[in-house]
Please model this.
Amino acid sequence: MKKIGEILFKSIVFTAAILVAAALFGIVFFLFSESLRAIKEVKWGLFTSEWFPVWETPEFGIRTMLLNSIILTLWTSFIVFVIGIVVALYLHSYANKKEKELILGVFEYVSGIPSVVLGFFGIVIVAPLLLKAGAWTGQNFFNASFMLSVLTLPFMISLSYQSLEKVPKEISQAAFSIGAKQFSVMVVELKYAMPGIVNAVMSVFNRIFGETMIVLMVAGGSNLLVKSFFDPIRPLTATLGSELGEVEVRSLHYSALFFIGFLLLVISLIITILTNYVVRWRERWIRG
Amino acid sequence: MRKFLFMSMVIFAVLIYGETLVIKGSNTVYPIAQLWIEQFQKMYPNVTATLEGAGSSTGISALMNGTCDIANSSRFLKAGEIEQMHKNNKYFVPLVIAYDGIAVIVNPTLGIDSISIETLYKIYTGQITEWNQVDPKLPKRPIAAYSRNTASGTFEVWLEKVLKGEKLSPRIQMLESSQAEIESVSKNQYAIAYTGMGYVTNQVKALKVNGIEPTVENVLKGKYPLSRPLFVFFDLSRFNNMWPEDNAIADYIRFILSPEGQKLVEKAGYIPAYGTEK
Model:
């Protein structure tokens, strides 16, 4: 009897695993097959800077949007990385128990805010402030970057903090015992915790790269390559979110939008795989 | 169990006796049609009406191959469609059911009352980027020009009447909704945008275009340059080219052209084509 139960359980778990893998494969295949028409008909035109989907002679160039997406993501991830580590270090090395509880508690609540609420906040509160500060438009690169930081910082801080807490006490004690100052001890601990932190940054990177609602609402929506913090931009995800709902099914425009989706998926998959490779098998690269 | 039996009997009865009304087409007409079928279903509970917004072209081609009863459209038939219609011995009746008037809006504090289509063209194609180029009395500040996203029906009018098919400047900011436009223009002193006339509030100032005020009267008189009629098409050849009297399509058309139906046009933010008084 026990054996039958075991077999049954195994087969259920096995089917579930297969289903998940099949779903992932199915999504990739679906996105690719739908974008095939655009790839065949527009070819390298997909990588020009002109995106005019509903004009008499339509153009489907995504270069500007792709570059804007990448620049916005890199910049915001960098900011989140720096602030995240500083706050996590403070919590780990200086904060007393009460402060820790308070700060971590606040971040736990902030991390539950839906992105559409953050986008709304960006429009109603941040945009007028930016206008007062002299920007020519309230929805811009800075606004999007700021709101995306608010979205991802709690995540970054709690993950970095957990990685730091996992550093064995022996390591910091050993460092102290050979006469290291507080700062050097923190460097040692950071080095030890780095794989976890890198993992967190990469997740943040993926999250920002794929985030749609916030950039749709506050990034500005113009196909302008960003040159200053106050330029309005339109990342790839915003275009996808804005246009997919109304496009004629199976048209060239539809296919071009699926190409964007396919590209987003491929980039995010590559980043995830790269992170796993680096963190799992090349820890030494990071720890030095 | 009894409930289930009753429900299935009702569904069965509807399937046998009930008529269906399949409506497809323009996204611009969609909000009006949504209000219409909501009311229509209450008046004629035995008719099952379905509505799909997938663009004017989709609606007209669905009417052509008989997969819908009513096609909503934000434009008249194209030459190729008329040709194909004749070839298939069909006759699509065009009914003007509303007008879509577009107001050009700026912040109330900006010292400007009137703008020409020519200037709008220059702003939206990027030839003009600062307010003092529009009028030397205005401050030398960058113009924050907003547009609806390309999926919007209002954008189609803009593309046709202001841009004249020309490419939009990359400086122009695409917004997702009319509310977002009103919000942005009311906050930014140097912003300009356009929106359906029904959406204009007193937080923003609607400009005269080529000297004509954007009012319902001026649209109905055909004076205001930024407007277009919205259509509903149905196929007369299905009824041997005789005007239908007693089926779902006839009931629907009678309803949408009635004062009650036209009031719903107003409610959706458009200009009724016919009187709304009883």
Summary: Chain B touches chain A at residues 27, 53-55, 57-58, 141-142, 144, 149-152, 155-156, 159, 165, 167-168, 170-176, 180, 183-184, 187-191 (CB under 8 Å). The CA atoms of residues 114 and 211 of chain B lie 6 Å apart. The mean pLDDT of chain B is 88. The radius of gyration of chain B is 22 Å.
